[in-house]
């Protein structure tokens, strides 16, 4: 089955592809949701898979990303300026009957739907604090 999605597996945050189709927007003053979707995909950890949808409408004011969490749930996320929400419970699927709140960050949204993500984030923060303490003692 052929898809129109660019999938990126997240293991060690390595191997994130450079997407040349976004280069035309670099350096512009307009906040383009296509760039936001790309930034979200590049910034995440502790999810199984996340990729920007190429089959759903994408414009300056809205974009969609798909995420699979460690609990093996799939979500389609709607990204609007400074707000994120679950738009559907399957990749590339928007379901208007899904009622959920908007989140200010994708991290907050993932914390709300994934206890494993929340735990991984807490562990990462704890490791960072411990590293800062060690560096401060040397």
TrEMBL record:
Give an example GO molecular function. protein kinase A binding
What family is it from? Answer: Belongs to the GSKIP family.
Record's GO cellular component terms: cytoplasm
State what protein this is by name.
GSK3-beta interaction protein-like
Swiss-Prot/TrEMBL GO biological process terms: regulation of canonical Wnt signaling pathway
Q: Name one Pfam family in it.
A: GSKIP_dom
Cross-referenced InterPro entries, in alphabetical order? GSKIP, GSKIP_dom, GSKIP_dom_sf
Q: Where is the GSKIP domain?
A: 34-131
Classify the source by domain of life: Eukaryota
């Amino acid at each position: 089955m052929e898809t129109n999605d660019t999938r990126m597996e997240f293991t060690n945050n390595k191997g994130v592809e450079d997407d040349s189709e976004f280069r035309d927007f670099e350096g512009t003053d307009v906040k383009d949701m296509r760039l936001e979707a790309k930034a979200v995909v590049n910034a995440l950890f502790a999810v199984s898979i996340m990729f920007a949808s190429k089959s759903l409408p994408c414009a300056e004011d809205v974009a969609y990303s798909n995420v699979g969490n460690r609990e093996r749930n799939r979500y389609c996320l709607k990204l609007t300026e400074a707000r994120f929400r679950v738009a559907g419970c399957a990749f590339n699927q928007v379901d208007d009957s899904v009622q959920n709140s908007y989140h200010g960050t994708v991290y907050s949204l993932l914390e709300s739907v994934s206890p494993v993500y929340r735990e991984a984030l807490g562990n990462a923060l704890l490791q960072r604090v411990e590293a800062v303490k060690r560096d401060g003692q040397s």
